[in-house]
Structure formats: structure tokens, C-alpha cells
Amino acid sequence: MIRTLIVDDDFRVAALHRAYVEKVPGFSVVGEAGTGAEALRLIAQSKPDLVLLDIYLPDISGLDVMRTIREGGGSRVDVIAITAARDVESLRAAMHGGVVHYLIKPFRFAALQEKLQSYAAMHQRLKQLSEADQHAVDTLYTILRHGGGETLPKGLSRPTLDLVTRILQGAGRDLAAVEVADLASLSRVTARRYLDHLVQSGRVEVVMRYGSPGRPEHRYHLVAVPVAGPAQRQP
């Protein structure tokens, strides 16, 4: 189960969000918080996997809660932030460390359900990586963080880009565009657009494989991202 903490200063909204989350298979609610301070206390105490976090809180802002989580280190806590459309740019600027998604309020159950299911797919992929593959886990988080604030070319979406990244991460080998397209349920042309963007950004490398004479095949794999050890990290 993905253990989820609900953070909202309106107890009626918090109760509604709890009901929404508990309707989605694979998710459970471990608590509710009405202030930023209470949220930080419950995060430290219950160690949730995911926080459904309202940006507007009566004591400190949700952005400050996010920054405190990131700066605190320790176990990863992912966030789905709930915000107003006018504050999306500020939220994007705060997307450092961990995978952060957002919902623009007001939203219906279907919107939250889609967001939770997308998060669950990523969470499951990470669970499948063994402890011996911790570097691969760190690499995936680093790649997803790196792309969090970038401006994507017209026609590309963040969830689909993250999905293509996760597919390449989980494959354990290089993949052809048609394989990525099948795994992501995309057209081959669309998959190539996302792969080409990842290549141009330096996160994916393309190699040539030669099958029948004169018919080279482009194949793609993630570029390993160095993860600093404790002695290399900045204080």
C-alpha cells in the first residue's frame, strides 16, 4: 500500500480528499494535518510515501513544507501539491529533490485518481528495483528531478516524458523506439519525439544496431547520472 498523508487546513476538504484517496486501490491514508507544523511532525512520525499537500496553510506555506522535507534528507517523501493556477510557476520553481506533481483546484475525483495512478506506476517500478540497484533508483530520481522545471517543446507533456524515462530505466537494456512506443501505448512517431528530446537534453544516449544490410536501428538507453556519496555531498 502507498501510505498517504493528507494536509489541508479545512477539515471538510481534508475528509473529502481522504475519501478520494481511499477509493483508489493500492492507497491508504495514514493521517491528516491542518497546519504545516503538524504536517512536518506527522511526516517524521508516520513516514508516509506520499503527501497530498495544500499550498495554502495557516502557519507556513506548503512550499516551505516541501523545502523543509527536501532539506531534511532521510527517507524520500513524494508530494502531490494542491494549488491555484496562478501559483503554478512558483510551485515549479520549488520542485527540487523528490518527484513533485500538482493538481490545480478545484478538481474532481477523476483528476486525482489519474494523478495517483500515475504515481503508483512509478512507485511500483522503483519497488521492483532490488536493493543492489540503489544507484539505479537514485539515477531515476535524479533524472526526474532534473526535468521537473524545464520548459518542454510544444506537444510534449511532463507525465508522458516521465513515463518514457521510467520505461528506459526499467528495461535494463537499450530499446528501439517501437519497443518504447508499445510499452508506453504511444505511436512510434510520438515515442520518437520524446526520445529525441531526451537525447537532446543529454539524459538518453542513442546507439546504432545493424541488422539487415543497410538498415541500422536506433536504440536508446539512459545515461548514468553520477550520485554523490556522503563524502562528496555539499554541506
SSE blueprint and pairings:
Layout: E1 2-7, H1 11-23, E2 27-33, H2 36-46, E3 50-54, H3 62-72, E4 78-83, H4 88-93, E5 100-104, H5 109-128, H6 134-146, H7 158-171, E6 175-176, H8 177-184, H9 188-200, E7 204-210, E8 216-222
Parallel strand pairs: 1-2, 1-3, 3-4, 4-5
Antiparallel strand pairs: 6-8, 7-8
Helix pairs in contact: 2-3, 5-7, 6-7, 7-9, 8-9
Overview of the molecule:
This protein is α/β, with parallel strands linked by helices. The chain has 2 domains: 2-128, Rossmann fold (3-Layer(aba) Sandwich); 131-222, Winged helix-like DNA-binding domain superfamily/Winged helix DNA-binding domain (Arc Repressor Mutant, subunit A, Orthogonal Bundle). The protein is built from 9 helices and 8 strands. It has helices spanning 11-23, 36-46, 62-72, 88-93, 109-128, 134-146, 158-171, 177-184, 188-200, and strands spanning 2-7, 27-33, 50-54, 78-83, 100-104, 175-176, 204-210, 216-222. Strands 2-1-3-4-5 form a 5-stranded parallel beta sheet, sandwiched between helices. Strands 6-8-7 form a 3-stranded antiparallel beta sheet. Strand 4 (78-83), helix 4 (88-93) and strand 5 (100-104) form a beta-alpha-beta unit. Helix 7 packs across helix 9. It is elongated and about 60 Å long. It starts with a strand and ends in a 13-residue tail after the last strand.
Keywords:
3-stranded antiparallel sheet; Rossmann fold; Arc Repressor Mutant, subunit A; alpha/beta; 235 residues
In total, the number of strands is: 8
What would CATH call the homologous superfamily of the largest domain? Response regulator
Largest sheet: 5 strands, parallel
**CATH architect. name of the largest domain:** 3-Layer(aba) Sandwich
Instruction: State which percent range the strand residues make up.
Output: 15-25%
